[in-house]
Amino acid sequence: MNKKVRILTVDGKQYEGTIMDVDRNNVYLKTERNGRVQTSAFYPGYGYGNQILTLSLFTLLAIALI
Question: Do the bridges between strand 4-9 and strand 14-22 make them parallel or antiparallel, or are there none, so unpaired?
């Protein structure tokens, strides 16, 4: 956790950000404010203005450190 990563999903989408949390079903990725990823997902505890993207572990193909 707290490492910058690039995530590739099984449908070919790529996301970059910092892993903030992982639970049994999801990975929670903090994206860059100026990044291309836009989300309305809300994950409590990280403060106003942060964009937290929730990705299902079942849709992930690869996670690489960058």
Answer: antiparallel
Structure tokens at 25: 């079903």
Domains of the chain, by residue range, sit at 4-65
Summarize pLDDT for 30-55 with one digit per residue, the tens: 987 654 554 444 445 444 556 888 99
**Span 4-65: which CATH code?**
2.30.30
Predicted TM-score of the model (pTM) = 0.69
Residue 57 in 3-state DSSP? Answer: helix
The maximal CA–CA distance of the chain, rounded, in angstroms, is 31
Q: If DSSP codes are grouped into helix, strand and coil, which group holds residue 28?
A: strand
